[in-house]
Amino acid sequence: MANILILGAGSMGTAFSYPCSDNSHSVSIIGTHLENDFIDQINSKKKHPVLDCNIPKNVNFFKIKKLQEEVNKKVDLIVVAVIAKGIEWASLQLSKVLKKNIPILILTKGLSIHNNEYEVLAHKMERILKKNGVKEINISGAGGPCLAKGLSNKVHTSVVFANPNIKIANQIKKLVSTEYYHVSVSDDVVGVEVCAAIKNIFSMAVGSTKALNSAAALIHQSIIEMIIITEKLKGNKETVLGLAGVADLYVSADGGRNSKMGKYLGEGMTFKEAKKIKMPNDTVEGADLAIEIGPKVKSDFSKKELPLMISVIDAICEEKTLIIHWEKFN
Q: Burial level of 120, CB count in 10 A (0-12/13-18/19+)?
């Protein structure tokens, strides 16, 4: 039995506790500083209000003030399950309490810009931890089609864990794999994390149409552009064609917040209008990512190379009506 600490009490962090619990591990879920009332609610009702599920055995929820105490309990794995905007905060919190090298697995999907360069979240966390005095670090990234609701209901789910050291990825795989949670491993950290992030932008594009013929064509173009971006950032083409790329795009495009936003954009609404009226309380990861990386993408790639992605970026960042330039597709 292992001790696993999950930072982030949202849907994905809690859902990840199910395979951990089923493997008889002891799990501590630490909420962010914004989740104190949420933690009280969970502990009071013994249910997760968003997932609408009972809390698994061996799983306990704590407020952020308990982070140091829980880390001191010989933790074998730290899992980060905050939103992409929270990675810097999570890194700073961990830098205050980490005294030894504990493997870290990032479930968060995102991509950022640092010093005018693209930076995957595993590298971002590593940079911040080192800057704040943590010398020994081992961070893995996660990708693949995993909806929290499905995982909490124990439907068959396949994901990929990426680490330059495959041995570490396999150790984490062994900890959390179950008969329903299937883990593959990869050493392509950049490819896995880039695909996991940018598929959210493309899922908005696919969600913009109800026509199956059109959606299929948009998926095809999305894959072409995902390969162009991933290879430009030194990831592997094969990763795009695997769980972190095509498979995750399929799940995201079929439902969820990104495709929902895409639906409103396809109906002619602007992003700010759709966000304010239709999705005021939802985090739309693809939109946040478009705002983060949009200017650099447009400076690094031409509309001929990425006609679909740039169309979505323009709709999000410049409050334009979404126009798909079909004539520019490869």
A: buried
DSSP H or E segment with residue 213: helix 212-232
Of 25, 63, 71, nearest in space to 41 by CA: 63
**Burial call 86-96: b when 16+ CB within 10 Å, e when fewer:** bbebbbebbbe
How many C-alpha atoms does 199 have within 13 Å on its Cβ side?
31
Element (DSSP H or E) covering residue 254: helix 248-254
Task: Tell me which residue of 162, 143, 141, 166 sits closest to 79, measured CA to CA.
Answer: 141
Look at 46 and 67; give whichever has higher pLDDT.
67
User: Could you give the 3-state DSSP secondary structure of residue 112?
Assistant: strand
Give exposure, 97-111, as e/b (b: 16+ Cβ within 10 Å).
bbeeebbbbbbbbbb
The 10s digit of each residue's pLDDT in 266-291 is 999 999 999 999 999 988 999 999 99
pLDDT grade for 237, boundaries at 50, 70 and 90: very high
Q: Kindly report the pTM of this predicted structure.
A: 0.94
- Averaged pLDDT, 224-250: 97
Residue 313 near residue 294, CB atoms below 8 Å? yes
